């Protein structure tokens, strides 16, 4: 219990607990304030908001104007070329990494130019606005008209040589980590961040890397490589025999040798199944060289970030606190789930199927061996700047043998093996890089700038750029400190709340994290991230005030567990011990670099409040609450009413509008009188879950299709998120499958469970009491052609247009009564008839066309569509911002409303960002979220 009246005054950062860099010019931030007192810190250029493709505007407070002039005089603007995309399946994740890097390194002292490599290795200079697209497919089809193309990669490299000082490649997988882009840059003498091409080739190839590790004395996982069309079946059979594996059922892992660590990895049983999986990888074009490894039964997976803090060509790697990757499988899991591996979906979509622990829950000698081994590996393989190294801890050595007893990796507690080397680690907002960096004192900006500055040290021509500050003042504070800092006039306090207990709580975590990171850039804000925990009694529900590192998790459950774990004395002591050790190692290297000005993230404790006391504290410190809780009390008006009762300003619509929009039936009834004005509603049939469970499925089906006068229906919860539990049903058998999922409380319906193909369907847990049936609205598929090898035959849109209706989603923004429509987006479904959770919110998936192409919707229809969207928003008395999903007639602009989301997704990949960027002038994320905050802050003015 932590009521506001009982809060004690405690320093934010006790610097006595941490190593101090011995330099008069380089200091740690003090506990009492995040304001930079040191003269060198006051020279920081500020984090910028991108206004156009090249303009950066500093917002880091009163120093900005003078600093800008000083920067121009000295000519110390470092020009960084950020390259993303590539031919691998992870090119969408690459775009997310580029977006995150762009967000956190922009400044008056550092200008970023963005470049994109398409799947056929064509290079383009793209605008920063395009980096904020959800997926490359959002703009692939129009690259020829909106981007500067280069005729050859050589021409591209020559352009880089004359236009940027250093390149930061963020291409994952092929061409990014296999030495391809590095060799191109080396030939044109372009400085770049990361490992050289020769070393990349060895480290990226899993088989070659394992051979090199074995040569260097490391214990490795027994493996066998297969390549080309003629697969060595007899050789594989002998390998099974030699490793005491049953030829018919021996369990192995099959994976491409030259692909990302999560692409194409699968479990196989026996020789025949292994060969089948190998052929599948080859036929899908992932790789023609495939490795088969022993399945490490009982093994525990880990990953560790390595940062080189040396000077010039002197390598001094420091390994951060490793992360344990714990895969979850339910009691009722099928075989494929129990054999789960850390695949693409588990890595990139927040899910309870995987949990991370930093530091790992391994014996201390194992953690130390991981850090020691990763350090040696980094040096011996000739890696540079930074890398991520994955491996396994085996409590027993039963499945791994080695020829020498002194092979590296043995501990009293078991064996440590290294299996994957990631030369360009993922850099999404909550990636391992930022998770582990924040545990040892680095903010996003600080770690990225440190990596860039370290790379600059290898190039004499860039030495002059290594004398500026690399840290941005963080304005994220714990609630213990918000009270005591109330004397800071002109500083607005913001509580960002996210989480909850609905099926979209993981998306809420992503939204809240994105809002928090974007708002804390503003120098006049103190932004505190807060997690709403699940619970029944509303006023006594728990709200956690979170320290920086605990926000960077993948699920709300993981955050809550981490909060509890952080308060557990033994675990807290271990973390503190390891953290101090790592920070000392970092400080010993970084103290030699004048540009490093200290760590800017402290390891605070989380604080637990009741929701009632949290709201009282918000009132006491005059904070504005930024609501990012999707569904439940965050979107049904409950939280809004509680805040309004206490006079606490908040973002988004008021409680009455929220309550109406949460109920899809009430929403339709409120706007049904607008029919003559071109706003239409969909007929609905509401059924109770109990009726569906107890009645004949066949009878219910015939009653529903008869009443709705349709052949296929769309079923959805009456009061839940826009993606959860939504499915197309084509027959009574489909309804039976859906009802069975409700009865069994399934968290998800597997792909293709219904008559018509579809993707994975996330289900609300617990199941909803009320469900809605609607006629399924038929629209023609919008297809984006695959990229051909000829630039003249680049991607394009295919749309039959027989049905004149398309599905759109559109944001609205403004004050009540004067809401205006942003640019609508046409939604393109990739895996069925209903947009999946991934397509709406997972970075690198889902396609949105913003603005609607003229080949689909005329300019006149678009204008009328926006007018009707605004009519809907004002009729519902929306304010602040919301998102409206609808079908639109491409000829008349008539709108058929689906639903209204009063707390829409605000993830880095959300369509709202694309629409804000389509404004004139463009609203970049920092500006967009600040605008939404300001609208909320003015609620009671």
UniProtKB/TrEMBL annotation:
Q: Which SUPFAM superfamilies match?
A: Glutathione synthetase ATP-binding domain-like, PreATP-grasp domain
Q: Which GO terms describe its biological process?
A: cell wall organization; regulation of cell shape
Any single Gene Ontology cellular-component annotation: chloroplast
Query: Which PANTHER family does the record match to this protein?
Result: D-ALANINE--D-ALANINE LIGASE, D-ALANINE-D-ALANINE LIGASE FAMILY
Family affiliation: Belongs to the D-alanine--D-alanine ligase family.
UniProt KW keywords: ATP-binding, Cell shape, Cell wall biogenesis/degradation, Ligase, Nucleotide-binding, Peptidoglycan synthesis
Q: Where are the transmembrane segments?
A: none
Q: Does the keyword GTP-binding apply?
A: no
Q: Which domain of life, per UniProt?
A: Eukaryota
Protein name in UniProt = ATP-grasp domain-containing protein
Domain ATP-grasp intervals:
211-453, 872-937
MF terms in GO: ATP binding; D-alanine-D-alanine ligase activity; metal ion binding
Q: Does the keyword rRNA processing apply?
A: no
Gene3D superfamilies, alphabetically?
3.40.50.20, ATP-grasp fold, A domain (3.30.1490.20), ATP-grasp fold, B domain (3.30.470.20)
One Pfam family assigned to this protein is Dala_Dala_lig_C
